[in-house]
Amino acid sequence: MLVRTIGSAVYGVDAISITIEVNVSNGRGYFIVGLPDNAVKESLQRIEASIKTNGYKMPRTKLVVNMAPADIRKSGSAFDLSIAMGVLGASEQFAETDKLKDYIIMGELSLDGSIQPIKGALPIAIQARKEGFKGLIVPKANAREAAMVNNLQVFGVSHLNEVVNFFKDESTLEPVFVNTRDEFFNNQYDFNFDFCDVKGQENIKRALEIAAAGGHNAILIGPPGAGKTMLAKRLPSILPPLSLQEALETTKIHSVAGKLPVNASLIAKRPFRSPHHTISDMALVGGGGIPQPGEISLAHNGVLFLDELPEFKRSVLEVMRQPMEERKVTISRSKTSLDFPANFMLIASMNPCPCGYHNHPEKECMCPPGAVQKYLNKVSGPLLDRIDLHVEVTPVAFQELNNARNGESSEQIRERVIKAREIQSIRYQNSEGIYANAQMNSKQLHEICLLDKPGENLLKRAMERLNLSARAYDRILKVSRTIADLSGSVHIKPEHVAEAIQYRSLDREGWAG
Question: What pTM was computed for the model?
Fold first, then answer.
């Protein structure tokens, strides 16, 4: 007897429905075809054990499982449940086989019939609704994640018997309901870190406020213990809240990568990813035989923090250059090419030299001549060219550390950032893919970032006296525009330019000695 069930395969951040045809006929042997990988081939062993454990019978004749379309590679263990239901239907162990075609069925089986979580439940649910399926059956641990998609019945199951009894009409399954909007808006401002905990460092807070307001990349340079990491971890708390569309995009990526916790709902806060400096190229940008998103995609709509930037391998840093410009990464293989979104803010930190005390107000640098420049040269010019703000972090004095008064809260800073972003959203409403000052192109730069005569003279003198490089010119104009937006000014004033010039430390000739 031939029976069809429906599964789903995740490619990139989207899903494709897979028709699973199971045929039981005369002959001997089990066969699975349709470009399955080893994990799919091994599923027949798990399925046989779970079927027998629960009192059902595994066919002793010829069993053929075809996974269509046959030219797309199938991977992973998530097809176990749909294949098992096909086997039970084809061997006539329940009668309601026509009901199978109305549901997408996904889940990994244990040998005792219990059902384990899968990756990519959210994109699978989105595709199921798009194709008009009546419902989706997934492991209970993935049910809330899939139930974020409205107008689709999602059933969470924990054992094979629940699914069999449902299709036998011997029991019913209760659909999972999630009030996505309420949960999303209730969790948007629940942060573990707040800027009110930071003592002193007002100039660094100001720089990060500018970075958040304009979507600028930034690098923090300072000695060990000055607070670089602490400040960077608090950046998401002052960024504008995610929109529902951004939250859905971000959650899809984390779902595909298997990074969502059990019983997770929509990601409500901007992600903050901080990979270790030993990370590989592939782990950062994504890849693999079946391409998976990397850290830059997991940081989509959020912050990617690279601590101790010069300690990262040069090849790892260089692969970020194109994704930073295009805000996506393309992973190409011989038979497929997949795009992963990668629209992130890069925040990096570094010591000024190997010992960490170059330009320190109190401690003496112990590095030999030339070591400072060699250390800074580990970070390439083209990468620094994509970082708008270079911020020097100095140690905090004891009097400030011992001060009981809290600083300005993240909520207060975030209000100013949101107002500045609202100005930019109106400014770029007719520019596709551009929503912040950091993303404006050369043509927009000359139209939007106009300076008056005093501002021009100030910028000219700064470039001459501080030996600023030519690449600093555009960055200073963009940052000046953001500072003007924060102050509510229509025009860029000389004081806005003056503040922006401060944030180009690494462009100064002789900064490294």
Answer: 0.88
